[in-house]
Amino acid sequence: MWNHQDKKKLIQLPPDTIHPNPAQPRTSFDPDSLSELADSIRQNGLLQPLTVRRTPTGEYQLIAGERRLRACKLAGLSLVPCVVSSCDSRQSAILAMLENLQRRDLGVFEEAEGLRRLVEEWGVTQEEAAARLGKSQSSIANKLRLLRLGSEEREIITRAGLTERHARAVLRLDKQEDRLAALKWVEEQQLNVAQTEAYIAQLIEPAPKAEKGQKKKKTVLVRDVRLFMNTIHHAVDVMKQSGIGAQSWKRETEEYLEYVVRIPRSEASGSAPLSLVKGEGKKAAQG
């Protein structure tokens, strides 16, 4: 690996003349945080210079400091201090990603996507990335595995503020539909990491083997009734989106967790109101 500290000089540049780095892994910047940084820059100036490179066309391209550059523009600075580094486009891209991957405020999937680009686009090995970032190779491999999750799964994880360990726990489920149902439950119940790991372990727990002479009972892979409750929620949502005036609510007793779904008779082809009950108890409900 090269030493990007070699052959560098400090200059002042208008912020509008600095072009963003296409290898920037960060896709979102918190407006409130940027505003706070801009206020600090107005009062104290930019304490840490940006790092840029001169492109073959003579333009300046940012290597490190995207957040600081945006804040400088908000603060209205006409010139910003920049360290000019002598590196090519490949080195610049790798430096940009490494600089951002070392930050703690990257999103789970921003970090994973940045690592993927390092490995696939720029030929950095997992061992090299681990050494540069101060992580183990297994940690890098685990982060790359997160990219197996689809866009809908990623959206829930990001929206709910779930962690990498939440995501890794859910990845133990093979089917996407099971992962989505589990994630919705984790979000709804605000489960922490330990609770999520226990919940997923319960979902995939293998059924005990039947003893000799006993008839083999049919088992269901997903053994937690909460996934079936999520299915009920989804069915009601679909009906509502289709214009059917479906209503649902749940109530709890000492022995039952009861879900009720009602559909107007006029929209149910003449059938009686539908009541779905899910739960376990010592006796069947009477009355």
UniProtKB/TrEMBL annotation:
It is found in: Cytoplasm, Nucleoid. Pfam families: HTH_ParB (PF17762), ParB_N (PF02195). Residues 11-101 form the ParB-like N-terminal domain. InterPro entries: Chromosome_partition/occlusion, HTH_ParB/Spo0J, ParB/RepB/Spo0J, ParB/Sulfiredoxin_sf, ParB_N. GO terms for molecular function: DNA binding. Residues 1-33 are annotated as: Disordered. Gene3D superfamilies: 1.10.10.2830, 3.90.1530.30. GO terms for biological process: chromosome segregation. One of its GO terms (cellular component) is chromosome. Keywords: Chromosome partition, DNA-binding. It comes from the Bacteria. This is ParB/RepB/Spo0J family partition protein. It comes from Candidatus Caccousia avicola.
